[in-house]
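[Solved] Which block belongs to which protein?

Original post:
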Amino acid sequence: MGSMSPGGNTALSADLYAALVGQLIVLLCVALVAIVVALVLRRRGWTATTATPEPPGRRVLRTGLGVLWIVDGLLQAQPAMPASFVQTSLAPALESAPDWLYSVIDPFGRLWLQHPVAADAVTVWIQVGLGVALIVGGAGRVARAVVVASALWAGFVWVVGAVLGGMTDPTASWLDGAPGAALLYVAASLVLLLPTTSWDTGRAQSWLRRAVGATVLLGAVLQALPRSGYWSPTGLFNHFSEVAVSGLPRAAAGPIQALATALPPHAALANATLVAVLAGVGVGLLVDVFPRRMIVTATVLSFLGWWLGQGFGIFGGTATDPNSGVVAILMLVASWPRPALAAAPVQEQVTAPAGAGLGRLAGVALGIGCLLVLPVVAGVGLLGPQTAQAAVGDSGGVTQTSPAPAPDFALVDQDGRALRMVDLRGRLTLVVFLDPVCADSCPLIANQLATAVRSLGADAGSVSVLAVDVNPVFNSVADTRTFTVEHGLDTWSGWHFVTGTSTEVAALLAAYGEGISVPNVGMIGHPQTIYLFSRQGEELAVLNDTANDDLVDSYVALIAAELRRHL
């Protein structure tokens, strides 16, 4: 029988790229307007006046941060992102978050679930826009506003997108990037806001080193906490093993796997050594003694952590940034001390050639277009009603399957009538497995199916729903009848809630490749899969994981759209 596949991801990625292409056309129009303005100004003899030359360290930090933001934007445009960001990135991190933090982040997670394509497109363009605007640079209020926007967005990402950089997770450590790359983005942006003269005096570079030092020292504390589990033989082994199979090229993954294999017998010693090294480097950067030596040492340490502990951060298909190691390296390189100046000369402003100024104007226009115009264009989708896209993002959507005959059965429906699968020939049939005493997901699924079928109007009579009672205790006709009446399904001729002996139902579940779990306490665990069969009794498609209170309308639209495709 059919099973779940990433088909929903494919559908959502197609929707995302169609949206991005349309928004890119808008950006090209903005760029065209900027070029026209630039040409008009050039014809009028406009020249650009720039501020004093930018210190090399600041230029390295600004450009590097811009490149990282663009990389983040491109990672956010990966095919799996609209469908999987909440499930693979946000939801696992929220499991260990305190209630107050959960209440802050949850509305944004719900918004993403309801509008996955629009939310992802907004994120893509904000980050690409920040990157372009930072790389173009410039002076004045606009350039400063871009840096402020970088700090604010990085702070938002650290709190909401990264759940405080994973700090609430008991296993958070420097090895996996805690306290988070976004927090370093904030620090780097704040240093860029310092006056240009602070780079000549070395104060800006010192702040960069201290910011990295603080995160390294915090990493030492996290690594030393007993709750992290890194003192046990399995702690470091599990971490490095997971990194080794995260999608890295074989040449990069081999040494990590070898490290995972070699460490367990010496886990306590290895972790103690790592804690000591992290503490020493962190303190050295904070007190800012021997800055050149500490920069070299910390850069090597950051690279090893980025490689061995974080797997370079970009592999696996769901990475949202290259992780903290590369950001630390950028900040350390930018913090290299400049030779002391005997006397600080007064630097006059320089008049740049008109072409250079106009080129920068066009570049700034592109950056502002990405940062302001396109997020607004994409964000319109966040204001609309839920669509079937939301259900695709939540469940993986609809998986089209190869034709296969529906498993037959001989069960009894809610009215005590014998029913077989062949009795439903001539109609499209939706098959689902429910528990008649379930109080949460089952009524929701039944309501979604009923609403979706009734939305077909005159075609509703061409569709039947076959619900199978999977509860081994509450499996009488009276149980299915009570569920049917309580949820207003008794007047619907297309509804069939069948039941039978535990053996008969188990055999039918097995024919579908499904099963149930019966806990000592609590509700029966059962599949939420919906199977769609043709009028001839051949499988057409599979829908999965539909019981989400936030997406009732979306699932109704998704189910109804799939039914219309086959009517």
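(Second protein starts here: sequence line, then its structure tokens.)
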Amino acid sequence: MKKEVKGKNSKIVMDYVKPITIGKKTACEDTKLTCERFLKDLNNQDYDFCVKDAEFVIQLIEKVFVHVKGDRFFKKPFLLEPWEKFIIYNLLGFYHKNTRKRRFRESLVFIPRKNGKTPFVAALAWALAILGRLSASTVYIVANSLKQALESFYIIHKNIQFMGEVENFRVLDNNSEHSISRSFHSEEGEEVGSMRIEALASNPENQDGFNAPIVIADEMHAYKNSNNYIVMKQATAAYENGLVLGITTAGTNMSSFCYSHLTYCKKVLRGEVKDEQIFIFIANADNKDDYTNPVEHEKANPNYGVTIQPEEIMAEAMQAQNNPATRDRFLNKRLNIYTNALNAYFDVAEAQKSNSGYKWTLEELSKLPISWYGGADLSKMYDLTAAALHGRYNDVDVSISHGFIPIVEAQRKADEDNIPFFWWHEENWLTMTNTVVVDYEEVVKWFLQMQKKGFKIKNISFDKYNSRDFYFSMKTHKFKMRVQDQAYWKLSEAFREIERKIKSEKYYYLNNKAFEYCLANVRALEDSAERVRFEKTDDNFRIDLFTADVIACKGMLEDIEKSKKMEGWLD
């Protein structure tokens, strides 16, 4: 039986949802899927639907909260848009059958810039804190930087001033704490509840042990790794109605946790993965190549015609068309499309598409009739070192790569350069050593482990510099070693071969996000002979796993050439 949706804002929400599902209102595919999910969930007998809390939050915001910036909106009531009310209805409306336990414990709201994200976060944080006052609610606003988190904090603080309620709230705004709190009392003076809102910079080490029923994870695209998000989930785990509300725009690191989380959420919407406790609202362009089309602009921007002026965004689109240097930024910030760094050579989306076409496991690959070629990119002292195996099966190139780094250096570089080494270690894409410098014996062990698993390694290529100990240890274990000069003209052929395989969707790297990260950081220049000189896009980034695979691929290509010569195919 279809549940009745009855509330002051129910018609607004349903008038938003239904036209999208039947194609009468412009929306991207992901937004449409979210609306279809909502209608389907209303018929799901596992859940009850009640608008009471959602209506409380919406009406509290609209009656009390005001805008604190902008010539058009300053001090005017904060009137929520239909898409914002739709989000609130979902988050607070669904309950497990015959309980007061809310269905959604996680959320991803993925919208472009200038759609009112920060004021919405502020208003929602304040209203949710008031909603939960009887159970002493705490709401954390956590962003990658304290400056970002404080933007919402100051909107709340300013509203309290406009309300004339400053004396009723305790506001701490100093170097050690940024919080707003209040106790509520009965007419007899007895305390009957409290609320607290605090702004924090995302730092798992400093947040271990903090607990709150609600955490708003702002600007998730800038989070260093999954640890930040995991700590937030743990912070809400003890609460029956705990909620982590992730809200962000697109970033430029397609190897990041946020991009991986976004991909997961898209799979949930498409029914490829079942996850009933996460609410998802995604607004982005469906066709990034049609970026001058106003339909794509409207699909990506739920506030199109409100805070997003059609003529303004069209002017930016035309500038992006006429000036390619601005195109990626337009796609990223205005159409909410993940893009590579501007000077990156590879389109990571192409590599991901190629990789997604294959599902072989390590065990399956070890049993296939593949000749494997090793590559090692050894660091001088304590930086990231990489090893790779490269093979070809039915014209598909397969890359298996692994990184190595001392744990002390990993800690330092994770903080300084925003590289998710600890996530890579958890996913077994990286080995951390308890040594001051890189232990090349760990690299040797990796090749031995792969050999033991059944990988038939024909030879292993390496640069002779910084590799004496590695070479002698490998020879002791009977590996056939091959010196590979890393001069760019020597490796250009292998670089081009990997590029060709990626573009033809015949390249598989076992979904290794550490490898993806390295691929995304490759910058390449061609010389007059069209040979490729490649390097990292920035001194603080790494490309070592990619380099190791290029070295391994070069060994394979030379072996193929040698066999062709023996067959008389080449002179």
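Accepted answer:
You had them paired correctly. Confirming on the second one: The first helix runs from residue 10 to 21.
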